[in-house]
Amino acid sequence: MLSSTRVAAALLALATVVAAQESDAAEPIDPHDRVVEDMRFEDYDPPSTLVVEETEVLRAKYPFVDIHNHQWAMAAADLDALAAEMDRLNMAVMVNLSGRARGQSGYLAAVLDNVARSQPSRFVVFTNISFDDFDDAWTARTVQQIRDDVALGAQGLKIYKNLGLTALDTDGKRIAVDDARLDPVWAVCGELGIPVLIHTGEPAAFWLPRDENNERWLELKQKPERYRPPGVFPTFEEVMGEQHSVFLKHPGTTFIAAHMAWMGNDLGRLGRLLDECPNVYTEIGAILAELGRQPRTARQFFIDHQDQVMFGKDTWVPNEYPVYFRTLETDDEYFKYYRRRHAFWRMYGLDLPDVVLQKLYYGNALKVLPAIDKSLFPPIEG
Ligand SMILES: [Zn+2]
Fold first, then answer.
1. How many CB atoms lie within 10 A of CB 297?
2. 70 CA to centre of ligand 1 in angstroms
3. pLDDT tens per residue, range 237-267
4. pTM over cut 0.70
């Protein structure tokens, strides 16, 4: 499709001008008379004049597992309708990380029951734990909850970013990600053979001054609560260091470090972490814009670490997935990402080799989630 949308947009703009001229016989406005001397950063977004091949990828090349998804009301959801939406993207399996959405009792059982009755092969559900009432009895109580939830059918544990940033113990102290009272939690997940998908920290830019040197300036303007002022929160290095020490201390537990462990902008460092910790996987949810600005480095990273990276998206907005497919599968140049506060730059496709794509889309997920029906996926070539 060669710039037909741009042609259509130009025709529409022309038609609007003509219509305006016909309707009220006011002075026609010559666009050259309007000179923008100054404007806001978020308003400067000119259409590209670049004419190159554009590839529309509405469906993934292979069936895929979305390892990082949230459905907040799955107990009563129409899962046949949801599966039909997934089919349009070629999403074979959705992993709902929010099995205990907002802690409601009985909710997890109702979710698992709904899945079992309507779409047993299309959905995987993870459980969650609460850090409320984090006292001496918390550990034993929580380990038992994980055992019970797995017996019920939960296939993993999701840890939200409140651990390490905002969760407090009963003495009012921040609970570090590597707090010793959590060790039995990581251990029982290893014993039960379930992965822990753990989201720790935020993009490092959220700790930086909100000035002209900050790549996430717009995000911190639009979402001021995301700023992490010094003294109030642990530093980026501190909280991520705690996460890495858990990975090293529990080699018998499989971890999935969410959002490329916030090192999507430093893939060399992420690669060293993955090399050091063979029990750790990662996933690409919400950091796609980092990959699209370094297509050669990212392509090599996916090749070198093809056994440890999975597909994840985080937010369930079906029409955003094609940007993921385009970035991973094509060699398109200079195309738009969909959220300017994540990327004021344009994207380039990685053109990943088929085997690498297959492992990213489903091969690695099948390793950590052995209950998934393998007949939904083609055998991996090579
Ligand atoms: Zn998430």
1. 14
2. 7
3. 999 999 999 999 999 999 999 999 999 999 9
4. yes
